[in-house]
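Give me the fold.
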Amino acid sequence: MKAVYFRGTALRYLLMRFLSSRSPRFIYGKLCLAKFEDIPEPSLIDEEWVKIKSTASGICGSDIGGLSGHESTYLDPFVSREFVLGHENVGIIEKAGRKVKGLKKGDRVISIPYLSCRQRGIKNLCEYCRKGDYSLCENINEGKIPAGLGIGWNKATSGGWAEYFVCHYSNVIKIPDSISDEEAVMVDSFSCALHGVINNMPKENDAILVYGCGTMGLNTIMAIRALGLRNKIIAIYSRDFQKEMAAKIGANVLLDMKDDLLKKIAKLTNAKMYFPRIGKPVLEGGVNIIYDCVSTSDTINNSLRFLKGGGKLVIVATASSRDKIDFAPVWFRELSVIGTSQQGLENYKGALKSTYEITVDMIKQKKISLKKFVTHKFPLSEFKKALKTAVSKKEPTIKVMLYNE
């Protein structure tokens, strides 16, 4: 089958980190860490798995992070050495194992990518999987599947950037034809944002800051509004089209990333500004909660200054190793810094449901409209053109989607 296959030896990975820091063109150029090639089709892991013909798959920031060599080496033990990319997936079941329940050939589906205890055939579930917090699974390198935390990072499963991938039936959700491929591809990234908001809910009168209006920032704004929260949302954007989209979906105040942000946030929140003899100004007061959807050294440092005492910084974007972060505000103002990754079972309207299922329900009920976030589509064979579009952002770009011809 045709697939975009990642091969990143330690040396090649470090070389790409160096080169991509100087120019993003190396990410999708001749030295790209992935190639479009013929590889064997994946086999069912056991009779509880299904084989899915991929119809569409999104390009995520974490895919770009891996291909640019900028993901943290902390994550290296939890990713296969070689694998097919693609975890934001939609497709049609091609084959179902004998023990698969509720699914059959021809069903149109999306797949939760995470490979935790149950998918790995581990009967004695870890403490997190017992609670439904499968993104915190302690056995993601164990069981009958090789190392690799999910579909799109695991050699045995393949991924959505291929003609076929395989998935455990418990992670497969049927979708109706009324949900387009574009909406289906967006379910993963929206559910990641939704997971972050549900588990870090602002109080009624809290001032919210969404830092960054790329895919995850826009998803976070939409998730806040879809949950019925009416809090004031301050959103920081870097491009005019992001500003327009953020305003349409519910942001109240839009700030340009090039603005004097400390000064503007001080004015918006009636905070006091103090000026150290050396270094950036300091706020006394500020916002209650920040969802950082960029997660660079600058955004983290700024966020810690934007928060009022006792405030919370939620790291939504995929975080890598960052230099020169000043943690004095965390100690001095008793701030909380928390990460949010993937999805899980959420306590939503008095019931436990997977974040994916909640997202699909929201689409059906027209509480959210995700299709408009897919701005570009490319055939799988043109994945380098797709990467160039996603990385360069020379035109208005939110989510780039690959499809099988």
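The mean pLDDT is 96.
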